[in-house]
TrEMBL record:
GO biological process, one term: copper ion import
Domain Pyrroline-5-carboxylate reductase catalytic N-terminal residues, every copy: 22-107
MF annotations from Gene Ontology: cupric reductase (NADH) activity; ferric-chelate reductase (NADPH) activity; metal ion binding
Start and end residues of each Ferric oxidoreductase domain: 249-394
Reactions that this protein is recorded to catalyse: 2 Fe(2+) + NADP(+) + H(+) = 2 Fe(3+) + NADPH; 2 Cu(+) + NADP(+) + H(+) = 2 Cu(2+) + NADPH
CC annotations in GO: endosome membrane; plasma membrane
UniProt protein name: STEA4 Metalloreductase
Organism: Herpetotheres cachinnans
Length: 461
């Protein structure tokens, strides 16, 4: 063997080592899928099962034997069995003494039992070292190899060495172990697979509420009012005009709601004179779902762009333009060119295009694959500085679109202002507060507070 090859051996000492035998209790879906993956990664596998007969479903190179026999062949035993059947382990307690038991189980409901399944296992077999792992990986993903989305394996346990050995197996399978600490973390880990888009709940419910409100608001102004007072049927607006009004309104409101908790947090910190007191729960939760709020806002902004692009091909728009041209021709009068109108129209479109471009940039940088490749300062620069610039551009786009409309009494139908005016309330509040926070008399103490300074240290919790 030449020098180079011996160096390679030194760099990868385990490559040529035979892997230790691992025992799997249970030949169900998960036991088989995990066993197959482990065999592919070089682990000899023995199954402990109620039936020692092998079937064509069981991985070819694995042995199947009784639980007691299988447990004696390995020091690591993965329990791929539902929690309600764990009782069968009690008579095996002596054989399992000192062994590492890996609990992979999940429940049907969040916090279904008072203690986690892993803690329950540790109570049933007190002499064993219980480690929680693999519960967030599905049998299907293991079999089909589509593990990209779920490469992380959360691991926890009280015995450091046992946890380390399980994490070595996780790595050998091409997955990424994430140490969550002691077995106390098992309950939280068991709840992960049961959560249904937890961070998306608030943004989606809020969007649904706002859609409903603005739909009826626009319906009243654009369809019901003309029908009642002018006997005109504008019900076709429900298809495009009203959605194209609601989408930008939602995009702007939701984008401003991404930045509102930040300025509220700044006000609270300035008021309290410390950063060491917890924010109210609602503010904490709101801050945690800012990314999702931003992405929902981006989705509405994209819809607005699509709806706007098809305006020229709409029948109503083409009819309106041609009838105006014909009436001008018949009366032999042309509308004079208005430089002001040209400026207003071009500026609001330009502001919208730039705002949407930055909005997309924000969306891209929030993708984990991108955000993982920028440092904290770069991420903050994009999300905070560019984020505020996006909010300014989108607010300006809406303001210029409205122009002087808010001064005209005819735009207040049934005393209701145009919907776009309502959409400006929160963004303007956020921008005004942010502007005030930039002044040195507020910015300086805030920066100090964020660096750990306290006005009245005795009041902090
Ligand atoms: P499964 O297909 O129902 O298999 C469970 C196995 O448990 C059975 O095949 C059986 O194996 C054994 N078993 C059943 N009743 C028993 C009893 N009374 N006493 C002893 N052993 C018994 O379930 P699974 O989908 O493989 O899930 C197994 C565990 O993995 C569960 O705790 C589950 O929460 C967890 N998990 C599953 C997935 C998944 O995608 N399926 C993902 C993550 C975690 P024998 O016939 O060989 O005895």
């Amino acid at each position: 063997m030449n020098k180079n090859s011996s160096n390679i051996m030194a760099l990868a000492p385990n490559t040529f080592n035979k892997k230790e035998t691992v025992c799997l209790f249970g030949t169900g879906d998960f036991g088989r899928a995990l066993g197959q993956k482990m065999i592919q990664s070089g682990y000899p596998i023995v199954y402990g099962s109620r039936s020692t007969q092998t079937s064509s479903l069981i991985p070819k190179d694995a042995q199947v034997m009784s639980h007691a026999e299988a447990a004696q062949k390995a020091s690591i035993i993965i329990i791929a069995i539902q929690r309600q059947h764990y009782n069968f382990l009690t008579p095996l307690a002596e054989i399992l003494h000192g062994k590492i038991l890996v609990d992979v189980s999940n429940n049907l409901k969040i916090n279904q039992y008072p203690e986690s399944n892993a803690e329950y296992l540790a109570q049933l077999v007190p002499g064993a070292k219980v480690v929680k792992a693999f519960n967030t990986v599905s049998a299907w993903a293991l079999q089909s190899g589509t593990l990209d989305a779920s490469r992380q394996v959360f691991v926890c346990g009280d015995d450091m060495e046992a946890k380390q050995r399980v994490m070595d197996i996780v790595r050998a399978l091409g997955l990424t172990p994430l140490d969550k600490g002691s077995l106390l973390a098992a309950q939280e880990i068991e709840n992960y697979p049961l959560q249904l888009f937890p961070m998306w709940k608030f943004p989606i419910l809020l969007s649904l509420g706002l859609i409903t409100f603005f739909f009826f608001y626009c319906l009243t102004r654009r369809v019901i009012y003309p029908y009642v007072y002018e006997n005109q049927d504008f019900s076709f607006s429900i298809a495009i005009s009203i959605p194209n009004q609601i989408c930008p309104i939602l995009a702007l409101i939701l984008l401003s709601l991404v930045y509102l908790p930040g300025v509220l947090a700044a006000i609270i910190q300035l008021y309290r004179g410390t950063k060491y007191r917890r924010f109210p729960d609602w503010l904490d939760k709101w801050m945690l779902c800012r990314k999702q709020l931003g992405l929902v806002a981006l989705a509405f902004a994209s819809l607005h762009v699509l709806y706007t692009l098809i305006i020229p091909i709409r029948y109503f728009v083409r009819w309106k333009i041609s009838s105006r041209i014909i009436s001008q021709a018949l009366s032999n009068k042309t509308e004079p060119f208005s430089n002001t109108n040209a400026w207003i129209s071009d500026s609001y479109v330009a502001l919208g295009i730039l705002g949407f471009f930055l909005f997309i940039l924000l969306g891209i940088t929030s993708l984990p694959s991108v955000s993982n490749n920028v440092n904290w300062r770069e991420f903050r620069f994009v999300q905070s500085k560019l984020g505020y610039l996006t909010l300014i551009l989108c607010t300006a786009h809406t303001l210029v679109y409205g122009g002087k409309q808010f001064l005209s009494p005819s735009s207040y139908i049934w005393y209701l202002p145009s919907a776009y005016m309502l959409s400006l309330i929160i963004p303007c509040i956020v921008l005004v507060i942010k502007f005030l926070l930039v002044f040195p008399c507020l910015d300086k103490p805030l920066t100090q507070i964020r660096q750990g300074w306290e006005r009245n240290p005795e009041y902090s919790e």
